[in-house]
Amino acid sequence: MHTVIPDQSISATLLKEVTIAKLQSRTANIGVIGLGYVGLPLALLFTEEGFPVTGFDIDSTKIDTLVSLRSYICRIPETEIALASDRGFRATSNFMWISKMDAIVICVPTPLTEYREPDLSYVTETVKSIAPHLKAGQLVVLESTTYPGTTEEIVVPLLEERNFSDLRVSRNDSEASNVVFVAFSPEREDPGNNTVARNEIPKIVGGVDRHASEIATALYGSIFSRTVPVSSTTVAEMTKLLENIYRCVNIALVNELKLLCLRMNIDIWEVIAAAATKPFGFQPFYPGPGLGGHCIPIDPFYLAWKAKEFDFATRFIELAGEINMAMPYHMVEFIAEALNVRCKALNGSKIMVLGVSYKKDIDDLRESPAITIIEALQKSGAIVVYNDPYFPKIGKGRKYDLQMQCVPLEQISQYDCVVILTDHSSYDYQKIVDEAQLVVDTRNATSGILSEKIVRC
Ligand SMILES: NC(=O)c1ccc[n+]([C@@H]2O[C@H](COP(=O)([O-])OP(=O)(O)OC[C@H]3O[C@@H](n4cnc5c(N)ncnc54)[C@H](O)[C@@H]3O)[C@@H](O)[C@H]2O)c1
Does residue 181 form part of some domain? Predict the structure, then answer.
C-alpha cells in the first residue's frame, strides 16, 4: 500500500475545474467499463465526438472481437468499429489503464438472482477492480440501472475501502484535495427504436455532491444535446426506475385487457388504435406474449426489494409482474386451443416459432418470453423449431439450457402451427400466412391480412 501525500494547494474546486476543462477541450480520457448493449455504443459516441476512449471488459471474447475490428452487436456495423479504432478507441481487459482516465463510466449488468433479488455483484466487482487504480480528480459514473441508494450506499464505501491510497469521495462540496467525484446517470436507450437519435435523449445526472454533478454534466453535455441535472444520485436512480415501472405497469394493464378482450371477442389492437387518436391523456402501450429484455422485467423488482427495507409493499409492481410473467403461459394455452379447434393435440404437434428476440429487429434474447414459451411447448410434448434472422442458434443462457438451430422458412407448410412471437420487419407475413397451415399471431403482425388460418392472441 502506498500513501499519496495530498498537495493541499490542489483543492477539490481546482481538481474539478481541471477535469471540466479537459472535457470541454475533448482531451479528457474516457473509460467505459462493460462493453455490452449500453457500454459499447456509448464508448463509440464519445469516440465520434473526438474523445480518446478506452473500453474495459472482462469478457476476453468481446475484447478480441473489437481488437480485430469486428462487432458483436447487430446494429453496430464493423465499419463503425474500424472508424472508432482509427479515431483512437481501444478495448482492453487491463484495469491498470484506469489510472490514465479522467472520467470512468460503469455500464455493467444488474440482473436479478434466481430468487428475484437484486444481483449487484457485477457492480461491486467492477468497483473493486477500479478502486486500486484511482487518482485524485477522476470522475466515476454509474450508469447501470439499480435501486435508489446504490451509488452512495454500495459504490462510494467500496471505492473508499478498496483504493490503495487515502483517496476519498468528494462530499458536501468540501475543498478536500484527495478526492474522486462520483455520480449516477441512468442509461435511457430504447434498443431498436430509431425515432430519436441516441444523443437527443436527455441525460439525467445526479452527483454525490455539486462538484460531481458539475463534472458529470460537463461529461454528458459534450455528447448529449441536453443534460438534466438532478439534486442527488438517489433522485437520478429513482427517475430511471419510475420510467421503467411506468412501462411495466402499463404493459401489464394492456396485457390483462387483451386477455379480457379475447374472451369478449373484441379486437384489442383496434381498441388501442382508436384510443390513441385522443390528443391528450392517453399513451398507447401494446400487448405481447410477455415481457423481455434486461430492463422492464427486472428493474421494477430492484425497487420492490429496496422498498421492503422501509416496510413498504410496492403492490403495482408486484401485480404488474404477476400479469406479465403469466403471459407466456397464456400464449401456450392459446396455441393449444388453436390446435384443438383443428382436432390436433399440442403433444406431438410440429410448431415453428417465428422470432425469439424479446422485441422486433434486435439481437437480444435476454428474458425473452420466447424461451419460456418454447420450453413450455416442449414440456407439453410439442416438437418445436424456430426461425429468427438475428439468432442462427440458441445455446445455454443464464436461466435456460436450450440447444436449437435456426431453421429456414422454406418448409413452413410442414408445421402444424406457426407462432409469431416477435414481429421482425424482415418477415413477409402475407407469404407466411399463405404457406402455413395455422398461424398464431401474438403481435398483430398479420394485421390487415384476412385468413381463417390466423388466430390472433
Ligand atoms: N440493454 C438496454 O437496452 C439497457 C437500457 C437501459 C439501461 N440498461 C442498463 O445498463 C446496464 C448494462 O446493460 P447491458 O444491456 O449493456 O448489459 P450487457 O450484458 O450487454 O453488457 C454488460 C457488459 O459488462 C461486462 N462486465 C460484467 N462484469 C464486468 C466487470 N466486472 N468489469 C468489466 N466488465 C464487466 C460484460 O462482460 C458485458 O460485456 C444494466 O444495468 C441495464 O439494466 C440497459
Answer: yes
> Which of 177, 198, 231 is the endpoint of a domain?
231
User: Is residue 437, in this structure, part of any structural domain at all?
Assistant: yes
Cα 175 to ligand 1 centre (Å): 34
| CA distance linking residue 171 with residue 37, whole number of Å | 32
Give per-residue pLDDT as tens, 219-268.
999 999 999 999 999 999 999 999 999 999 999 999 999 999 999 999 99
CA distances from 98 to 207, 290, 294 (A): 20, 40, 27
Instruction: Give the tens place of pLDDT for each residue, 173-221.
Output: 888 889 999 999 999 988 888 899 999 999 999 999 999 999 999 999 9
Query: What's the gap in Å between 105 CA and the centre of ligand 1?
Result: 11
> Which residues are 168's β-sheet partners?
179
Please count the structural domains in the chain.
Answer: 2
Q: How much distance in Å is there from the Cα of 111 to the middle of ligand 1?
A: 9
261 is catalytic: no
Closest CA to 299 of 186, 108, 124, 146: 146
Taking the C-alpha atoms of residue 380 and residue 152, their distance in angstroms, rounded to an integer, is 48
Mutation test residue for ligand 1: of 32, 33, 35, 38, the one with most atoms within 8 Å of CB: 38
Helix (H, G, I), strand (E, B) or coil at 404: strand
Residues whose beta carbon lies within 6 Å of some atom of ligand 1: 33-39, 56-59, 62, 107-110, 122, 125-126, 129, 144-145, 187, 189, 191, 294-295
Which cell goes with 67?
Answer: 481488437
Residue 188 CA to ligand 1 center (angstroms) comes to 13
The residue type of 131 is A
- DSSP annotation of 419 reads E
